[in-house]
Amino acid sequence: MQQLASFLSGAWQSGRGRERNIHHAISGEALWTVTSEGLDMAAARRYAIEHGGEALRAMSFIERAAMLKAVAKHLLSQKEQFYALSAQTGATRADSWVDIEGGIGTLFTYASLGSRELPDDTLWPEDELIPLSKEGGFAARHVLTSKSGVAVHINAFNFPCWGMLEKLAPTWLAGMSAIIKPATATAQVTQAMVKSIVESGLVPDGAISLICGGAGDLLSHLDSQDVVTFTGSASTGQSLRIHPNIVANAIPFTMEADSLNCCVLGEDVTPEQPEFALFIREVVREMTAKAGQKCTAIRRIIVPQSQTEAVSQALIARLEKVVMGDPAQDGVKMGALVNSDQRADVQEKVDSLVAAGCQIRLGGKADLRAAGAFFPPTLLFCPQPDETPAVHATEAFGPVATLMPYRNADHALQLARAGGGSLAGTLVTADPGTARQFIAGAARSHGRIQILNEESSKESTGHGSPLPQLVHGGPGRAGGGEELGGLRAVKHYLQRTAIQGSPTMLAAIGKQWVRGAKVQEDRVHPFRKYFEELQPGDSLLTPRRTLTEADIVNFACLSGDHFYAHMDKIGAAESIFGERVVHGYFLISAAAGLFVDAGVGPVIANYGMENLRFIEPVKPGDTIQVRLTCKRKTLKKQRSADEKPTGVVEWSVEIFNQHHQAVALYSILTLVARQQGDL
User: Fold this and answer.
1) pLDDT digits over 93-140, tens only?
2) Superfamily of domain 261-464
3) Which of 11-15, 141-145, 381-385, 640-644 has the lowest mean pLDDT?
4) pLDDT confidence of 263, banded at 50, 70, 90?
5) Fewest Cβ atoms closer than 10 Å to its Cβ: which of 193, 385, 404, 526?
6) Nearest CA to 625 among 567, 539, 560, 555?
7) pLDDT of amino acid 279
8) Is 295 a catalytic residue?
9) Across-strand partners of 152?
10) pTM higher than 0.85 for the full model?
11) Which of 161, 262, 263, 295 is catalytic?
């Protein structure tokens, strides 16, 4: 056996001291020894901050997003070696796909989010200008900046790849280095992926560190600039949450822990409906995928009292057909638990549920002497779920779920909430009213809820599937965190600060022009400038145009918009306007006619308009003038040498009347050519 090395302070290191073994889930063979004793955690943290952290903070959000994409592509090319190691953990190919390619997909998603939504800068203005004074000379906005610490990610054994990558993606995008501490039972898979990342040379030195073994005294060396995330058992998580140093320095601590997730069958569903078969399929899939070792797996099956036996029989019929064994063999649909310790724990939890009043309908007993850590699909039945608190508090982390009846819709909601906070839930119903009632009553105790019916089933990703765009945490027992969730996750690793000052100063700080800030005008039309030449604040004040009744009539005939406020003198006179007004969309068209440069130039296309507001009505005889100002720029990376180098420019458009009142405000997005490419 070899010792599984850690990667700390820029080097692979081996601990010296008490060792644990990693066993093959199928054969029981000891594969690796693991220890981190004697490794200098304080030095590892300093190295991660001083090397990886500084390098990441110096990169713009766009550069970090490009790095994520490059890492994702590299890992995808190396995926077969990860699949080979994942098989040692008892996972089937399908199980491993979720972990490996699903995890890599998270990197791709965050790379895309970063390149589309975040600024080409190290500072992220989070909102628009907030006026704080009557004359507009004093204002504020919130900005997000990278913390100067390190993110410590303590992960669970069930998803050694995805569990790491779902946290790495927002961490790196935020500009923080990470120290990964995987669960020992599957640490060899995580180590292989970290080794691949390090050897790729795609991330700065120190951007990722790895602890194989215990975290030692690492938490004692953290300060308020650091962040800790934990995925695992509630008991371990709670003990870490109250670590004296975590408490003393108010170190952000995010936890994902036990979760008694439920799947509820709506009262409207009968065995003859397609939703009934969908319910059975969903429960069976969640019980057997990863051999039930999923934080989001269905643990509580909540069904109408009248359907209890029909559901029980249907589940047993499907579960009995599940072939359990070595995933390397053809036809095997469910592998083993991760090791014999986990098997013993699941058996103990099943026994305690039976002792509390649950009945075994299928399975329930494992051969604890067998080499492979197999546990049969187990269906329990709890006839009195209100009087059996254990069924809502005891999580057997394996292919185990408990069937329980409900009397009416309110009772179903009570049972759904009885888990004390869940990561994910599913309601199977064909009735929109039932769905609405369930969300109103159960959402507060869940991180995510899937409403499954025949229509959504065609494309559904399934109960609890972790999607990078969605929240992956849950309240209460589930830990109270909100992991993932798109850009919300990135913000978790950033510091939010309210900046107050003049609009011009705020524009300079954010490298984004804001209304009220100074502008720069010159003789060159902004649309004649390449992306590199444009700067936030570059502005054009157009000539004036007087709008007439003929304009209104012509636009109405051209567009077909004969709304009474534009075309009916009597109706308009009785309206809030008092007389006919110019079409809002003609106003926008007329403004474009004033500020657009017609010749061929760097501006390639206008592909968006945002935040349009009509402030004051424009009437025949009013004169408009437009100010066009470059608000912000975002570089678009070239995907190939053949692709034209471009960037996105957001322009602020302000339309004024003859009284210098704003009549319309909006932004437009243009694709602008660059002079220099990336390739």
Assistant:
1) 999 999 999 999 999 999 999 998 999 999 999 999 999 999 999 999
2) Aldehyde Dehydrogenase; Chain A, domain 2 (3.40.309.10)
3) 640-644
4) very high
5) 385
6) 539
7) 98
8) yes
9) 179, 228
10) yes
11) 295
> How many CA atoms lie within 13 Å of 9's alpha carbon, on the beta-carbon side?
9
To the nearest whole number, what is the mean pLDDT of the chain? 96
Q: Which helix (H) or strand (E) holds 509?
A: helix 503-510
Q: Which two tokens stand for residue 300?
A: 């509580």
DSSP summary character for residue 553: H
Distances (CA, A) of 111 to 65, 77, 202: 4, 17, 14
What are the angstrom distances between the C-alpha of 465 and each of 140, 192, 375, 603? Answer: 39, 24, 23, 42
Class of domain 519-673: alpha beta
Give the start-to-end residue ranges of the domains of the chain: 2-257+488-494, 261-464, 519-673
> CA–CA separation, 213 vs 182, rounded Å?
8
Catalytic member of 161, 166, 212, 256: 256
232: left (phi over 0), alpha (psi -120 to 50) or beta: left
User: Which phi and psi (to 5°) does residue 348 adopt?
Assistant: -60, -45
CATH number belonging to the domain at 2-257+488-494, selected among 3.40.605.10, 3.40.50.2020, 3.40.50.1110, 1.10.3720.10? 3.40.605.10
Classify each residue of 109-133 as buried b or exposed e, where b means 16 or more C-beta atoms within 10 Å of its C-beta. bbbebbbeebbbbbbbbeeebeeee
Q: Which two tokens stand for residue 59?
A: 């990169």
Tell me the per-residue pLDDT of 376-417, one tens digit each, with 9 for 90 and over. Answer: 999 999 999 999 999 999 999 999 999 999 999 999 999 999
| Full 3-state SS string of 415-455 | HHHCCCCEEEEEEECCCHHHHHHHHHHHHHHEEEEEEECHH
- CB atoms under 10 Å from CB of 623, counted, come to 13
What distance lies between CA 677 and its chain's CA centroid? 31
